[in-house]
């Protein structure tokens, strides 16, 4: 009897402890999630609003530049054929102005006829915020955050609308470029304007992709919040039923696999789930005969497209109007911070009758003009090491300023030139550097080679010639060898 009572007491105690630990764990998780949720909502709102502003401003300016070119072409064509000029440009200029108005719209309404291309990151943001706003138990804990949540949802809706407008603009510009090439190939003085529109279109697409790539690099709080959400079965089910891809699959099954167990990553169903869906819903389309027939159709379409391009070429047009007729500069669309490059280099000099052995250290900051060229400035410091192993003595031998221009035509080899100004007299204070006649000028030109050290670090070696070495007092060596690292 005593043993039974003892076992009952122990069992009740253990059960109470387990219940307490479970409730305490849930409270801790909810408290932690509540803080993460608040930071996540604020982060999304700030990030998306900045994206919307950048896309709106750049699109408006790009369209204005295209309109300016179209007006110039309209005047040129009107001198030859006024009727054709009116028909060919009036509608186009009006359409471009409507796009300007549309991209500035502050509403998140999207045309049911054109929703734009699928953007996984946008879908993830939209579903996560909608889940937080609608999920039972989570919505009740929002409280004072409801205003911020609504603002974030509205910002994401605006982003979706703006990206849909961008896709419309891209599609329109492709068609417009084809029309202009076919209709204006015989008009004189039009090629320059067509080239500028083509260039504007290429850089516009690249700039929008650069903005989207910036979004695709999630901040730490986003990773934490989405990591928590993706572990929730309710969120996985919500995404399967409400994501942009949900309409592709039958709504009767809550999961592609049919049992609700298919995992969803970034709004996308797993590969296994898609295969199971294809085998179940479209068995007649996965047979070898049908696959072969589809492949033949694709090859036929490619052949027809090639013939069409050849005909366009024979008529004086471009074979592929969407391809640029110039070499795009990939640095053009990047921000200033992403075009900066930093490096450090060093060189050693032997002891001479007038100078001790020395070690020269330099730091530089450069700006990428394009994919092949960069320009920059730097500072250098030369430390004296003494005259030999038996007489090691550290001293301030020189302080210098540098400029450089680097050109890398292809591969890892590059050509570099620049000017340097070095204070070649020992100094003990900064005030001594005001002696301008003590500064020594060098004009350098030479070859270099880059090599990979690690994923984030690259090295370089340079062999330079100084055209002013004979003017130095005392005369210095004409050649110098430097090793460096780029960050």
Task: List strands and helices in order, with pairings.
Layout (H helix, E strand, L loop, with lengths): L1 H77 L3 H22 L16 H15 L11 H38 L7 H25 L4 H11 L2 H10 L21 E2 L2 E2 L1 H11 L6 H27 L21 H4 E10 L7 E12 L4 E16 L2 E20 L2 E11 L15 E14 L5 E9 L12 E8 L1
Antiparallel strand pairs: 1-2, 3-4, 3-10, 4-5, 5-6, 6-7, 7-8, 8-9, 9-10
Helix pairs in contact: 1-2, 1-4, 1-5, 1-6, 2-4, 3-4, 4-5
Counting DSSP H or I runs of 4 or more residues, the number of helices is 10
Radius of gyration: 33 Å
Q: What gap, in angstroms, lies between the N and C termini?
A: 77 Å
Low-confidence stretches: 15-32, 251-262, 315-323
| N-to-C series of helices and strands | HHHHHHHEEHHHEEEEEEEE
How many distinct beta strands? 10
Largest sheet: 8 strands, antiparallel, barrel
Number of domains: 3
The gross shape turns out to be flat
Query: Which strand order do you get reading across the main beta sheet?
Result: 3-4-5-6-7-8-9-10
- Average pLDDT works out at 76
Q: What is the strand content?
A: 15-25%
The percent of residues in helical segments reads 40-55%
Helix/strand/pairing class, anyone? alpha+beta
